[in-house]
Amino acid sequence: MRLLSLSLLLSLVLSACSNAPQNQEKSGMQQFTSDQSFQEVHEEPGDLNYEGIGQKIKLSTTSGKDAQAFYFEPIQASNKYLIVIHEWWGLNDYVKQAAQAFFDQYQNIHVLALDMYDGQVASNRAEASTYMNELSAERAQEIVQAAIAFSGADASIATIGWCFGGGWSLRTAIAAENQADACVIYYGSPVESVQELAPLQAPILGIFAEKDRWINHEMIDKFQAICKASKKSFEEHWYDADHAFANPSGDRYNENAALEAQKEVDRFLQKHWYSKN
Questions:
Q1: Overall number of domains in the chain
Q2: Are 87 and 57 in contact, with CB atoms under 8 Å apart?
Q3: N or C, which end of the chain is more exposed by having fewer CB within 10 Å?
Q4: What CATH number does the domain containing 249 carry?
Q5: pLDDT tens digit string along 202-234?
């Protein structure tokens, strides 16, 4: 029952995936936000009045402009940190509830859900497109670095994100270097060069959909080749489903695929991060 509950909570987030091919001048997925067909595959999130146990915090950055995050702190001391990164809508209540689902499942961990939009949360496609386009790679990297610094030098870090957040899950793990122990990408656009991937030391789990028109086999095959050339561990799982297949409120929801994918995520995090000393 715990697995089912976590899967359903996580899959609410996936309706908002941003998943276009890499654009180095932006943040990997921004070039498709003006595409009408791309926008239309993202179903606008409904209202969810989250009343959980997390708290909004500020993170210090090198520029002096604070970053924001939603934080779950364990009662006992722990060096386990899970960094959660939202999709193109921003840090909304669905992401907060998904973050709490991780916190409830993996006992005695820190969960840090980053706010990549500095307090802006989209309620429609036009806003989401604007917010994602306005995010500079420099600001995003600054937020990521602030989260790593907040975790501390002894932290064991895992990252997870969906679509836009999937790409930044990988980039966060790269930035964390030897502190990162696991990286999960749901439908995210990966980096495109050996040089970009070089600092990564964590294994990667990728969750993908066979019918996804943006994050497709061509893109992921190229990334797999980069991983092999860099001697990085990349485990990919594909499901006979469409984009956002794990979202139970959308037309593309595939319950069997969503649950199977969540089992892979749980297995991966347990092996490489949660149970690792």
A1: 1
A2: no
A3: C
A4: 3.40.50.1820
A5: 999 999 999 998 899 999 999 999 999 999 999
